[in-house]
Amino acid sequence: MTTTIQVGMLGLGTVGSGVITRWPQAVTTIETTQGIHLQLTKVAVAHLTRARQVPLPPETHLTDSITAVVADPQIQLVIEVMGTLTTAKRAIVAALTHGKSVITANKDLIATAGQELIALARREHCDLFYEASVAGGIPILRTLTDSYATDTVQAVTGILNGTANYILSAMTAGQSYDQALTAAQRAGYAESDPTNDVSGLDTTYKLMILGQLAFGQPLTREQIHPVGITTVTAAQCQVAARHGWQLKLLAQAQRAGDHLYCRVAPVAVPTGQILSQVQGVQNGVAIRSQAIGESLYTGPGAGSTATANSVLNDVLVATRRLQQGIRGTALSAPARRLPVTNLATLPQAYLLFSDLAPVDLQCYAATNQLVLTPITAGVYQTDVLNPQQVRILQATEDLKLIPIAETVQWPEVTAQPVTVARAALG
Ligand SMILES: NC(=O)C1=CN([C@@H]2O[C@H](COP(=O)(O)OP(=O)(O)OC[C@H]3O[C@@H](n4cnc5c(N)ncnc54)[C@H](OP(=O)(O)O)[C@@H]3O)[C@@H](O)[C@H]2O)C=CC1
Ligand SMILES: N[C@@H](CC=O)C(=O)O
Predict the structure, then answer these.
(1) Which of the residue ranges 193-197, 260-264, 323-327 would you say has the lowest mean pLDDT?
(2) pLDDT given at position 328
(3) ∠ CA(385), CA(225), CA(415), 5° rounding?
(4) pLDDT in tens, 81-126
(5) 132 CB less than 6 Å from ligand 1?
(6) Does any ligand 1 atom lie closer than 6 A to the CB of residue 11?
(7) Cβ(205) – ligand 2 distance below 6 Å
(8) Taking 80 as the threshold, does the pLDDT of residue 335 lie above it?
């Protein structure tokens, strides 16, 4: 016998439209494999009269009332793809409190209030899934929680923002920053306000979510202290590319001894390294773990269809669990909180872009005991710099430093390897 489950959705923008486009196929798959018929009965939007890109299924009612969706007793599953912090949190809390399972793509919310919402979901015996919140179309969260369950993750390095990677790739190919950002917005990659995309905050939120699942470790925005791409220029991208580096906005979290090191910043990645080849809206997540060693996951990090696919896969899992009566995944609390240090505090080499006259720079370098290898006019590779030298250089307006990947000098590790329980996706 086919059971019917009613679904409600909040938001019908880039991701919501993708969900609608892919809906018939997902419904057929779920019906065929699970004997469950999904009915999308209500979708809430902010502007009821706005023209929509996709026609809604005939049974779907469009509303501008979030409450009409999250408090509807017939709806068992709510998809939140509207974004925002306060409104979305209120809506998800209401949905969970009304006993509905929730699927969200909202990384800002999961990064900042995820643990609270997950605890609520557990108390209410509901599921809360958020695969689309990190790296758009790449199924990285479930891979981490399921496929690394018996492994120990040592390092996660990622290109996690499609917009920023699109801009850096386009600038390397000759476009201006503004042209590239406009194109990313038109393609639906950027947030409605793209500030977080380019400031590194969106990447930071995604690293916070990955950190929780990979290391069982809460990371804060302050610990990650993001540096964005707003001051990276097309000229810098192009000169770096001509001399063997791609500039990438990298998210890094790495365990060394009993410390966790993290950073979000533009990094010069040598062209031989695989993440340098991740271009445009593609994202890439490189994981190093005890058992598997190095592995890399790439795919579209933003965009309507790819992100909607992650949402719909969560719908499939949540539906199956509704049918089986298993909801409210138990989350294992972090077994241990490692001290967190920003990677920028470790000695490493940098690309130095200088607007100073060469003679002034030479004098400056001699005074501060810096070894600079010229790459081309106004561009140098530094020796490994200590944090004090970096601070001095960063205080000079005419100089820009971009760390070079894989040059970090790690502190000597004397502690025993640490095994940290990881949180399940729930
Ligand atoms: N775009 C992408 O590639 C990705 C986005 N995400 C995340 O998915 C979420 C949605 O993103 P995206 O689709 O791009 O956003 P859009 O800005 O394209 O769409 C937002 C939708 O939410 C609706 N909405 C906004 N406020 C309200 C409200 N108060 N009540 C009811 N509806 C509301 C809007 O209604 P209306 O249309 O009437 O204005 C709109 O349909 C965000 O959390 C984003 O960070 C995650 C991964 C990838
Ligand atoms: N704006 C985000 C969308 C996906 O999370 C991005 O560009 O990556």
Answers:
(1) 323-327
(2) 74
(3) 65
(4) 999 999 999 999 999 999 999 999 999 999 999 999 999 999 999 9
(5) yes
(6) yes
(7) no
(8) no
pLDDT band at 249 (very low <50, low <70, confident <90, very high): very high
Whether residue 1 has pLDDT greater than 70: no
Q: Return the active site residues.
A: 206
328 alpha carbon to ligand 2 midpoint, in Å?
27
Q: For residue 375, report the phi and psi dihedrals to the nearest 5 degrees.
A: -100, -50
Residues of the chain with CATH 3.40.50.720: 3-136+303-324
Mean pLDDT of 197-216: 96
Complex prediction ipTM? 0.99
Task: Compute, in angstroms, the gap from residue 187 CA to the centroid of ligand 1.
Answer: 14
- Give me the torsion for CA of 117, 121, 122, 123, rounded to 10°: 100
Class of domain 149-299+337-342: alpha beta
CATH architecture of 347-408: 2-Layer Sandwich (3.30)
Sheet of strand 259-270: strand arrangement: 293-300, 282-289, 153-159, 245-256, 259-270, 340-342
Q: What are residue 153's phi and psi, to 5 degrees? A: -80, 130
Residue 307: count other Cβ atoms within 10 Å of its Cβ: 28
Contact present, 324 and 203 (Cβ < 8 Å): no
Q: What is the pLDDT of residues 174-193, one digit of tens each?
A: 999 999 999 999 999 999 99
DSSP state of 11: -
Question: Ligand 1 centroid vs 66 CA: distance in angstroms?
Answer: 13
Percent of the chain clearing pLDDT 90 (strictly above): 89
The closest alpha carbon to 30, from 66, 4, 48, 64, belongs to 4
Rounded to whole angstroms, how far apart are CA atoms 218 and 52?
A: 39
Alpha-carbon gap, residue 30 to 418, rounded angstroms: 41
CATH (residue range 3-136+303-324): 3.40.50.720
Whose alpha carbon is nearest atom 4 of ligand 2? Answer: 302
- Ligand 1 near 305 CB (within 6 A): no
List residues forming the annotated binding site: 10-17, 107, 191
Atom of ligand 1 nearest to the CA of 202: 45
Ligand positioned closest to the Cα atom of 42: 1
In the block, which residue shows the tokens 């005074």? 367
Confidence at residue 421, expressed as pLDDT on a 0 to 100 scale:
46
Return residue ranges of the chain for CATH 3.30.360.10. Answer: 149-299+337-342
Task: Kindly write down the DSSP assignment for every residue of 187-204, as one continuous string.
Answer: TT-S-SSTHHHHHSHHHH
Residue 386 has pLDDT above 70, yes or no: yes
